[in-house]
Amino acid sequence: MIRKLTHLFRRHLLTLVQMQPRSAQPPAEGGTVADAMDTAGPQVCDDMTIEVALFVMASARTGHLLVCDDSGLCTGLVTQAQLTAARDGSAYTDRVRLRDIFGDRGPFTSPVTTMVEAGHMMRHNRVEALPVVDEHGSALGVLALAR
User: Fold this and answer.
1) Which of 1, 18, 24, 138 could be disulfide-bonded to 43 (CB atoms 3.0-4.6 Å)?
2) CA separation for the pair 49, 101 (Å, rounded)
3) Which of 125, 122, 70 is nearest to 99 (CA)?
4) CB-based contacts of 56: which residues, under 8 Å, 6+ apart?
5) In this structure, what CATH number is given to the domain that contains residue 51?
6) The model's pTM
7) 2 CB-near residues (< 8 Å, 6+ apart)
8) Can you give the three-state secondary structure of 3-54, one letter per residue?
9) pLDDT of residue 9
10) pLDDT in the model for residue 7
11) Virtual torsion, Cα 39, 114, 130, 44, nearest 10 deg
12) In angstroms, how far is the first alpha carbon of the chain from the final one?
């Protein structure tokens, strides 16, 4: 299994993962999402398989991945729990792609959204992390709950 993942990783990963630089700004109390978002972490293409995505997540030591389509637009965020549940499901095959496990796109937030609004959105959608996108739908980072 490890050999297979390593082979898949080497063959596909360089074109599918894009690392974002880490933000040097500390979050501002009562500010906007731009003040608190983390721009670090890999972005992966939605045609990546679940197994490769789990490998990328483990290698990056992160609990989530930003997922983008072929045109570079953010389609969502996937967590380790979601990937593990999909992999452990009865319909799983090694051909299942990230795009296959997404329902609706989103939720997303904008960098100019206030932290209060983002907090309401996260509670309403029952998520611990939100992709932050620009006006064109490109991923800028992630707003995650502090642990």
Assistant:
1) 18
2) 10
3) 70
4) 9, 13, 17, 42, 44, 48, 65
5) 3.10.580.10
6) 0.74
7) none
8) HHHHHHHHHHHHHHEEEECCCCCCCCCCCEHHHHCECCEEEEECCCEHHHHH
9) 42
10) 42
11) -30
12) 32
Q: Considering its fold, how many domains does the chain have in total?
A: 1
Residue 121 tokens read as 């959105």
d(CA 30, CA 115): 6
Cβ atoms of residues 139 and 43 within 8 Å: yes
Q: Which two tokens stand for residue 74?
A: 């953010």
What tokens does 65 get? 């991945």
| Domain ranges, residue 56 | 2-144
Q: What are phi and psi of 89, to 5 degrees?
A: -75, 160
Closest Cα to residue 110, out of 72, 138, 75, 78? 138
pLDDT tens, per residue, the chain with 147 residues: 444 444 444 444 433 444 444 343 434 456 999 999 887 578 999 999 999 999 999 999 988 999 999 898 999 999 899 999 999 999 899 999 999 887 667 789 999 999 999 999 999 988 888 999 999 999 999 998 775
Return d(Cα 78, Cα 29) in angstroms, integer. Answer: 27
Task: Report DSSP state, residue 96.
Answer: -
pLDDT computed for residue 25 by the predictor: 42
